[in-house]
Amino acid sequence: MFKKSLVVGALATALIGGIGTANAHLSPCPNQNIGYNGLAYTRYVVNPDNNFASVFTQMHNGINITWHLKGVVKPCLYNGRKAYSAYYEGT
Fold first, then answer.
1. Which among 88, 86, 87, 90 is positioned nearest to 47, based on CA atoms?
2. Residue of 3, 6, 87 whose CA lies nearest to 52
3. Is 61 inside a domain boundary?
4. Element (H, E) at 23
5. CA 74 to chain centroid
6. Count of the separate structural domains present in the chain
7. Distance (Å, rounded) from C-alpha 70 to C-alpha 39?
8. Which range among 5-14, 34-43, 44-53, 69-78 shows the weakest confidence by mean pLDDT?
9. Helices (H) and strands (E) in the chain, counts
10. Pick from 65, 14, 10: nearest CA to 41
11. Among residues 91, 77, 59, 61, which one has the least CA distance to residue 19?
C-alpha cells in the first residue's frame, strides 16, 4: 500500500511539474491597452483559448472602433496560465 502511494504521488508530482515547465518558456502576454500609431488604433487581445474574431466593434472614449485581426495568434503567459494573444488594428 505504501509503495502504491509513492508511485501515485510521484506520478502526480511529475504531471503537475510538467504543466509548470510547459509554461516556463512562454513570454508574458502583451499589454492590452489601446494605442494610436498615426494611421490606426492598435491593440492586442488576449484570450484563454486560441479563438479570435476576425472583426469586432467596440466603443472607446465615445468613438466606435472597428477592430480587424492583423497579427499572428501566439501563445503567451497571462496570470500564470497559458493564453493566446492577437494583434488588431482599428478605424
1. 86
2. 87
3. yes
4. helix 2-24
5. 8
6. 1
7. 14
8. 5-14
9. 1, 6
10. 65
11. 77
Query: Kind and range of the H or E element at 42?
Result: strand 41-47
Does 66 or 16 have the greater pLDDT score?
Answer: 66
Report in angstroms the alpha-carbon separations of 62 from 34, 49, 72. 14, 29, 29
CA dihedral 36, 41, 44, 45 (to 10 degrees): 140
Q: Is residue 78 part of a domain?
A: yes
How many residues are recorded in the chain? Answer: 91
d(Cα 47, Cα 87) in Å, to the nearest integer?
A: 12
Q: Quick check: is 28 in a domain?
A: no
Instruction: Let me know if residue 10 belongs to a domain.
Output: no
Residue 13 three-state SS: helix
pTM for this prediction: 0.72
Please name the amino acid found at residue 67: W
